[in-house]
Amino acid sequence: MSRSIDSMRQNLRLKNIFILSYHMCIPIALFHLKRSTRTDRETEALLLQLAIIPPLMSFHLPDIHHDWPFPRGNNPNYDEVAEESMKWLESFRIFSEDRQKSFRAIMPGLLASMAYPDHSRPHFRSACDLMAVLFAVDEISDRLAPEEARDIAESALNALRVPESERVRNEHPLVDLHRSFWARTLQTASETVKRRFIASYEDYVRAMIQEADDRQQKRVRKSMADYLALRRYTGAIKPSFDLLLLPSEISDEVLDMPVVKELEMIAIEMVAVANDIVSFNVEQARGDIHNLIIVIMDGDEKIDVQMAMDMVGEWYRKRGRDFVECLNQLPVLLEGEGDSEIHRLHEYARGLGNWVTANYEWSFECRRFFGEHTMEVKENVSKVGVFSMIGGLVKYKATSLVPST
């Protein structure tokens, strides 16, 4: 069977076009068609051929966390504070009633609970609010042209810089949401967070605007390195890491040590790439191109989706080993040092590892990526959960692993 499928795949390799594994992912196919030099008649013939390909394409998610050493945690204030935060966001009336119901299914408070399990109630509220803010920005910005994204982003940045400023007429509610979040956070934040958060958020804003431009231009990044240079910032991961320091004062001298910067970089990449893996199904179905799996598939070798998943999964596991090795290079914490700066640094480093866990675990408990199949997918990752790609959106079905013959 596998040989006949491979033969079919080879027969469907056409100039400038790559047929995804066993069935065409239509949004990506159309993207390639727009970039090809085919005549209209050739394009019509190809689309007709694609329409009759049997819906056989399937892929499974790589098991990327089977040896990751950081266990899941949960904040004891989750139930009460997460709901408080959600009602706070709803008060800004950013979404319609139907979209707000969908937004609740993202469960930003659950991600905050896993990512900041030891935060006090006030600090945890700020963490919940930031997750809500970031997901709201993501939901809105994906539908904006670069100019619109830039206008809202710059206004939001100004609101963070001057949170006591009043709302102006016709201001987008996202701007006031930022203002309210930061005004509350400043009441309990450490000086470390006050120094570092806005600079990190500025990097995120610039990257978000660039992503909007890439999306409008249908521009796929040319390499993994080129893609990660932008992706490290588009998810607002560094600002999220900054909130790990809400209760802690650590000097810039310590936080800017090369080993700490490397730990942050590895954790940022792991969070971003894990998100790309689990979100690939949803993103390819709606024609998104800002995803590492798509970048790898679109590279010079033009590999299929399963090969891309496996390559990225192996890369991810290697970065996990790099993180643990880097962790062991931190300054030694001596017995009895108590609440020293080095002790707080070790807590921050463990928080980075925990954030990686939180991101992965949350992906299988919210309904953002797998809908009603969330727990079933999670239980079957190591058993090879298979997705059958039909009409763009991939449908999930758990199967046992059967070796190819």
Quick structural summary:
The protein is mostly helical and 405 residues long. The chain is built from 18 helices and 3 strands.
- Give the overall pLDDT as a whole number: 81
Supply the helix-strand structural class. mainly alpha
- End-to-end separation in angstroms reads 7 Å
Output the number of helix runs.
18
Oligomer: single chain
Number of strands: 3
Rg computed from alpha carbons, rounded to a whole number of angstroms? 22 Å
Q: Write the H/E string, N to C.
A: HHHEHHHHHHHHHHHHHHHEE
Strand fraction: under 5%
Unreliable residue stretches:
1-39, 41-56, 382-405
Can you tell me the overall shape?
Answer: globular
Walk me through this protein's architecture.
With 405 residues, this protein is mostly helical. 61% of the residues lie in helices and 3% in strands. It has 18 helices and three strands. The protein has helices at 2-11, 26-35, 40-51, 78-90, 97-104, 108-115, 121-141, 146-161, 173-186, 191-217, 224-234, 237-242, 252-255, 258-285, 292-297, 305-327, 341-363, 374-380, and strands spanning 58-60, 385-389, 394-398. Strands 1-2-3 form a three-stranded antiparallel β-sheet. Strand 2 (385-389) and strand 3 form a beta hairpin. The longest helix is centred in the C-terminal third of the chain and has 28 residues, at 258-285. The radius of gyration is 22 Å and the shape is globular. Its EC number is 4.2.3.-. Its cofactor is Mg(2+). It is an enzyme of class 4 (lyase).
